[in-house]
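The instructor's notes for this session suggest beginning with a concrete chain rather than abstract definitions. Hand out the sequence below and ask the class to guess, before any prediction is shown, which regions might be ordered.
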Amino acid sequence: MTTKKTDLRYAAFIAGEWVKGTKEFQSINPADSRDVVAVFAEADKVTVREAAQTDRQTFKAWSKTPAPVRAGIIGNYGKLVERNKVALAKVLSREIGKPYREALGEIQEAVDTADFFVSEGRRLYGQTVPSEMPNKELYTYRRPIGVFGCMTACNFP
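After discussion, reveal the predicted structure:
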């Protein structure tokens, strides 16, 4: 049994530089266990902490970026995904093992999500609503609050 090799290697991207992890792991095509889709760096606690600290520093400037500019960046991301929809769907299908048509739909969902958040990013106003207390109103406003970490299901990002 021959394993299909890959030249695709990914590491953590921190502060504009690629940072190698202490270990690597392979992403294997579930339909063909010989097919290594890519090799990824495993981030240890030190690498994750470094990324979070860098992001906290970057956040200060990002939070001062006007909403329309941030929306434009998200919009550009959505356009980039859309331009590469077929290639991304092929990789997604190969890596996760879902049918190609479903993978295309999932990539389209990423484009649609970017489009949605372009408009949300322009709505930085909040809401004013009546309170249950007499002569009081409740109001909210939106502003960036900081860096967060998130782990999601791998089968539907």
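Then share the key points. DSSP finds four helices and seven strands in the chain. The radius of gyration is 20 Å.
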